Amino acid sequence: MTVPVENGHAGHHTAHNNGGQNIEKLDALIVGAGFAGIYLLHQLRKRGFKVKIVEVGSGLGGVWHWNRYPGARADTQYPLYAYSMPEVYKGWTWKTDYANSADLRSYFEHVDAQLDVKKDTLFHTKVESATFDEATNTWFVVCDTGKTFQTSFFIPAIGFSAKRYIPDWEGLDTFKGMIHHSSFWPKEGVDVAGKRVAVLGSGSTGVQITQEWASEIGDDGDLKMFQRTPNLCCPMKERNLTEEEQTKDKEDYDAVFRARLSTFGGFRFQPRPEKMLEASPEERQEMFEELWNMGGFRFLMNNYSDMNRNLEANQHAYDFWRSKTLPRINDPKTAELLAPQKPPHPFGAKRLALEVNFYEQFNRPNVHVVDTKTYPIARFVPKGIVTADGTLHELDVVAVATGFDGITGGLNDISIRGCGGRYLADKWKAGVLTYLGMTSAGFPNLFFTFGPQAPTAFSNGPTCVEIQGDWITRTLEHMRASKVTRIDAVPESEHEWKQLVQKFSVTNLRHFTASWYNGANIPGKVQEPLNFAGGIPYYIETLKDVTDRGYKGFRLE
């Protein structure tokens, strides 16, 4: 059994290791061929910049190239989990209103056919180090293939889930069965018919795998979902789409994509101005039923404005959720594990999953919940997993759905050295410091997307990365026109940004709940707000204000 290992500072290479051989000069080098990287490549190329992408995987799609586990699909509803570019959407037709991973990989092939992405993408290439050269105001970037780039701008567009997290379980390497992390899933899939299988984790990925595997194991198999915290899932209400309705819908796409910029999370809806505690019980029930029946994130993100800010209001939402969930689970003990009487945390404070028939799976006699909050995993043994109560769970296949070192892990995994040779990971050891969630002082000409202290996990991905991509593109155009070769955030501006991130965070119940939103899932990681919770409109206005005021908070040279 082999568990892939992520590298840390990757040997601390610099550009001078190869004596100047095989160095390619660029205006911009992008890391990652997902939504953000492809968008930036397209926008910068259109404006005459010499730019390339390096991608560790073998294909386009970013997280969707890697996420091939059973049941993997987007949780943003059509048509917003896609680019807003007419040259892309006009020729594309979705099968369902929540795209699965295979459809998303096909979508990225369509994107390539329209935008010719692959011609400027180096696959099977991992960036090991990026070092800023203060004499030339350029970045020297060394890849594991031996390739070195000298680039004016270095843009890691790796998203928030680039670094997998696998707990340091005792005896992991002794297990004789098959084990895969959800984002290292074999392309050929895993046959679990008649097998004894385990899903470790109950986040969105764990829910999706459990939902699929419960039927795939058949009557002779056995499934155990190892759960520390129940996922307060909402119904997806997925439906098939016709080509005819999409052709008609496309007439309004431009307006729909513009409208998302005015909503808090970049979706088609946002919290309503009304307060739950000011509504009558009858009004509240009517609102809840309406949102529940619409499905998706409506119940979470289109609800009363005080639901995620006030514990009393939040309890009403939890009680309604539980009243809808309990009738779907036959066994009272299982029901208490999956939908406990006392909320495990405020509703919506942790990322909830969208499900189709998740709860019904536990009515099967061979599908079980293992309560790892009471009895954690003690160790792996050749035959399976031993929990703290001494129980041996004999297993053939294990799916590790333990998530990621989210938001910052991927950036810290690259050996990024700025002014004075300081590593970005060292700078952030005591806590993240960014300006606008895209730059960090002391690391000139470095821009990152869908990362720390940006809307990121509190937003629709394509919405966020297009906003950031447009701002980065305009910034590079401004620098070229002004004959400026260096841009760096000043330390004061990033401290002010951190205070703003904190100010918005404390208004939401998420702030007081340990989760990957604040780094609590990684042992030893500083717990702090990792996402900007001020909303998309405020973020857009702030970016505009910075540029309108001559790049306030930056030093340009």
UniProtKB/TrEMBL annotation:
SUPFAM superfamilies: FAD/NAD(P)-binding domain. Belongs to the FAD-binding monooxygenase family. PANTHER family: L-ORNITHINE N(5)-MONOOXYGENASE-RELATED. This is FAD/NAD(P)-binding domain-containing protein. Its cofactor is FAD. Pfam families: Pyr_redox_2 (PF07992). Residues 27-244 form the FAD/NAD(P)-binding domain. The keyword Repressor does not apply. It comes from Aspergillus puulaauensis.
